[in-house]
Design brief:
The structure holds two protein chains of two kinds. By secondary structure, chain A is of the alpha/beta class. Chain A has a single domain, classed as Amidase signature (AS) domain (Amidase signature (AS) enzymes, Alpha-Beta Complex), CATH 3.90.1300.10. Chain A contains 16 helices and eleven strands. In chain A, helix 10 crosses helix 12. The N and C termini of chain A lie close together (7 Å). The N terminus of chain A is likely disordered. The N terminus of chain B is likely disordered. Chain B starts with 11 loop residues before the first helix and ends in a 9-residue tail after the last strand. Chain B has a domain of 52 residues: Glu-tRNAGln amidotransferase C subunit, N-terminal domain (Histone, subunit A), CATH 1.10.20.60. In chain B, a hairpin with a 2-residue loop joins strand 1 and strand 2. A two-stranded antiparallel ribbon of chain B has the order 1-2. The longest helix of chain B has 18 residues. Classes of the chains: A alpha/beta, B mainly alpha.
C-alpha cells in the first residue's frame, strides 16, 4: 500500500525509527542504543515533513518535547528505573487540557486558551515519562466524524490525502498512521476513537466508561465521553491504557476498582473464546467491501479457536443512533453553556447588553455543527418535548444495556464492523444525518458504557483500511485486548501506509 | 407521543426561539438551514417513540455508580493570575463584563 504519491511523496520518505512500536522503542531506549532525543527529533522532523500533506496537528510543541526527551535521557543514563513511557513521543487530542500549552478543542471559541492545569490523563502520561509532541486536530468540540469541522483546517487521511481520516479524533489517528508519533490519545463519545482508527488503519481503544478519568477533558456529552489510546499495535494500546486508567478523586464517575495488568493475557489466544456476531451489526447499511472484509475476519477467528455465534439478535440496538442523537445533543447543550465569553476563550464586546455580548460570542465562536447540536439538545429538553424525547431516550438506553447484558451472559465478546464504509472523500457527505450514520456500529458501546476496540481488519474499496471492532463486558478491557492481539497476529495487516 | 401525529416541521420563529434560549446569534441564512436540518434529523429520531418502554427505568449516567463521596479536605486552588490570564477582559482581580443590572 502506498499513499497518494502525487501529493504525498513526503509520506513515503521514512526513517527506520518511525516504524517502531512503543514497546520496541522502549526496549531500544533501555538497551542504550537509542536516545529519546534522537527518537523525538526524528518524529519532529517527520511532522515538519508531512504536515503540509496530513495536517494532523493544531499545535506542535517542539522545544518542550526536546526538553522532555533530554530529561528522559538523563534519567535513563543515571541508572534510575525509568517509568513505563519514559522518553517515548506521543500526541494529545486538542480536547485535553495541557497546562501552559494552548488548547482549542478545534474551536474559535478557545482560540487563545492556555490551560492553568493538566487533564488527569495528561498528568499521568507526564508522570510516566512520555514526551508530548503537541496537540492534534479534531472536529470542533469533538462533534463530527470526519475532522472536516475543525475551525482551523481539515486533516487528511495518510492512506489517501483526498479522503478524510474520520473523526472526531482524526488528528490523533492520522498522526499515528503517518508515523508522526508512536501513539496518541483521543476521546470517544459515539465512535470518535474507533471510527478514525478504522479509517486510518490503526488500533483505537475506547475503554469502559469510568475506567479512565475525564477530569480536564473538555466535555461534550458527559454520560458518554471516554478517553483512550491510538497505537500501531494492540500491545501498545495496552501499554498506554495501563498508564491512564484508574480512579481519580477529581472525577466522581470514575470506577474506584483495581486496574488489572492489561498486557498480561495478550498472548493467550482465542481458544474457547465465545464471540457473538449479532445480526443487527451485520445487516443494513454496510458497504459490500466492508462486509467481505468482515466475513474473512470472522473465518480467521473461527478457524483459530474462537467460537463465532451468529444467532444472537439485539432488536433494540438499531435504536442506539436515535438515542444518541437525543442524549448527546441534550448533554452538549448543557455542557457548552459554560462558553459565555466571560471567564475564558473568545468574548465579543461592544453590544448593548451582557446578553447581546453573550449571544454574539456564541454566534461567532461556535461552528455550524456545534450550533446545530446545541439547538437540537435544547429542543429535546424543552417543556412539552422532554418526556417524548429525552426521557424516552434514557429508557431505551436501559433496554439497549440489557440486550448487551443478555448477550454477555453467554459470550465473552461481540464482534462487529467498526464503520459501515471505508474513509470517504473530503466534502462527500453534506447531509448531517448521513454523516451521523458513520457511527451506527460504534455508538451502541457508548450507550452501554462498554469497552471496545477497533483493529485493522483488512482493506476495502480504493485500498482503504477496514476496521474490525470487538466489544467486551464492562471493565473487561483485558479480554478485548487479548482477542484483538490474537487477531492482529493472525491477520498481520500493515498499520500504516507503506508498512 | 406529541410528535407522531404530524410531520416534523420547524418554523423560522421556532428556530429563533430555540436560539434565544441557548443564547446564540444566528444569521437569517443559518435560521433557514437549521429549520430544514433539524426537521430532517428529528424525522429519523422519531422511531424512538415506537419502542415500548412501559415500566422501564431511565438510565441517567454512563457508569452504575451511586452516592460517590469525595474526601472532605481542602486542596490548593488554581493560581489566580493563570486563570485570569484567559479572561477576554479583566480588571485588576476581576472578570470584566457588561453591566448586568439596569442602572436606571
Amino acid at each position: 500500500m502506498t499513499a497518494n504519491t502525487s501529493e504525498g511523496g513526503a509520506l513515503n520518505d521514512l526513517h527506520d525509527l518511525h516504524d517502531l512500536t512503543l514497546a520496541e522503542a522502549r526496549q531500544r531506549l533501555l538497551d542504550g542504543d537509542l536516545s529519546s532525543r534522537s527518537l523525538t527529533q526524528a518524529h519532529l522532523d517527520r511532522i515538519a515533513q508531512t504536515e503540509p500533506d496530513v495536517g494532523a496537528f493544531v499545535t506542535v510543541t517542539a522545544d518542550e518535547a526536546l526538553e522532555q526527551a533530554d530529561a528522559a535521557d538523563a534519567l535513563i543514563a543515571s541508572g534510575d528505573i525509568p517509568s513505563p513511557l519514559t522518553g517515548l513521543p506521543i500526541a494529545l487530542k486538542d480536547v485535553l487540557m495541557t497546562q501552559g500549552t494552548r488548547t482549542t478543542a478545534g474551536s474559535r471559541m478557545l482560540d487563545s486558551l492556555i490551560p492553568p492545569y493538566d487533564a488527569t490523563v495528561v498528568a499521568k502520561l507526564r508522570a510516566a515519562g512520555a514526551v508530548s509532541l503537541g496537540k492534534t486536530n479534531m472536529d470542533e468540540f469533538a462533534m463530527g466524524s470526519s475532522t472536516e469541522h475543525s475551525a482551523w483546517h481539515p486533516t487528511s487521511n495518510p492512506w489517501d490525502l483526498e479522503r478524510v481520516p474520520g473523526g472526531s479524533s482524526g488528528g490523533s489517528a492520522a498522526a499515528v498512521a503517518a508515523r508522526q508519533c508512536l501513539g496518541s490519545l483521543g476521546s470517544d463519545t459515539g465512535g470518535s476513537i474507533r471510527q478514525p482508527a478504522s479509517f486510518c488503519g490503526v488500533v483505537g481503544l475506547k475503554p469502559t466508561y469510568g475506567r479512565v478519568s475525564r477530569y480536564g477533558l473538555i466535555a461534550f456529552a458527559s454520560s458518554l465521553d471516554q478517553i483512550g489510546p491510538f497505537t500501531r499495535s494492540v500491545e501498545d494500546a495496552a501499554l498506554l491504557l495501563q498508564e491512564i486508567a484508574g480512579p481519580d478523586p477529581l472525577d466522581s464517575t470514575c470506577y474506584d476498582v483495581p486496574v488489572p495488568d492489561f498486557s498480561g493475557q495478550l498472548e493467550r489466544g482465542l481458544d474457547g473464546m465465545r464471540i457473538a456476531a449479532p445480526q443487527e451489526f451485520f445487516s443494513d447499511g454496510m458497504d459490500d467491501d466492508v462486509a467481505e472484509a468482515m466475513e474473512t475476519a470472522l473465518e480467521l477467528l473461527a478457524s483459530n479457536g474462537a467460537e463465532i455465534d451468529r444467532t444472537p439478535t439485539m432488536p433494540t440496538v438499531p435504536m442506539a443512533l436515535p438515542v444518541y442523537y437525543i442524549l448527546a445533543p441534550s448533554e452538549c447543550s448543557a455542557n457548552l453553556a459554560r462558553f459565555d465569553g466571560v471567564k475564558y476563550g473568545y468574548g465579543a464586546r461592544g453590544g448593548e447588553s451582557m446578553w447581546s455580548d453573550m449571544e454574539a460570542t456564541r454566534g461567532h465562536g461556535f461552528g455550524r455543527e456545534v450550533k446545530r447540536r446545541i439547538l437540537l439538545g435544547a429542543y429535546a429538553l424543552s417543556a412539552g418535548y422532554y418526556d417524548a424525547y429525552y426521557l424516552q431516550a434514557q429508557k431505551v438506553r436501559t433496554l439497549i444495556r440489557r440486550e448487551f447484558d443478555r448477550v454477555f451472559a453467554e459470550h465473552d465478546l461481540i464482534v462487529a464492523p467498526t464503520a459501515p464504509t471505508v474513509a470517504f472523500k473530503r466534502g462527500a457527505i453534506t447531509d448531517p444525518y448521513q454523516m451521523y450514520l458513520n457511527d451506527i456500529f460504534t455508538i451502541p458501546a457508548n450507550i452501554a458504557g462498554l469497552p471496545a476496540i477497533s483493529v485493522p481488519g483488512g482493506f476495502g474499496a480504493g485500498g482503504m483500511p477496514v476496521g474490525l471492532q470487538l466489544v467486551g463486558p464492562r471493565l473487561d478491557e483485558a479480554t478485548v485486548l487479548q482477542a484483538a492481539s490474537a487477531y492482529e497476529r493472525l491477520a498481520g495487516w500493515p498499520t500504516a501506509p507503506g508498512g | 407521543m406529541s410528535n407522531s401525529a404530524e410531520p416534523n416541521t420547524f418554523s423560522s420563529d421556532q428556530v429563533r426561539r430555540l436560539a434565544s434560549l441557548v443564547r446564540i446569534d444566528l444569521t437569517p441564512a443559518e435560521v433557514e438551514e437549521f429549520r430544514t436540518e433539524l426537521a430532517s434529523i428529528l424525522s429519523h429520531i422519531d422511531a424512538l417513540s415506537e419502542i415500548d418502554t412501559e415500566g422501564v427505568p431511565p438510565t441517567n449516567n454512563g457508569a452504575d455508580l451511586l452516592n460517590v463521596q469525595a474526601v472532605d479536605a481542602s486542596r490548593p486552588a488554581l493560581p489566580r493570575d493563570a486563570v485570569l490570564a484567559n479572561a477576554p477582559q479583566r480588571e485588576d482581580e476581576y472578570f470584566r463584563v457588561h453591566a448586568v443590572l439596569d442602572q436606571s
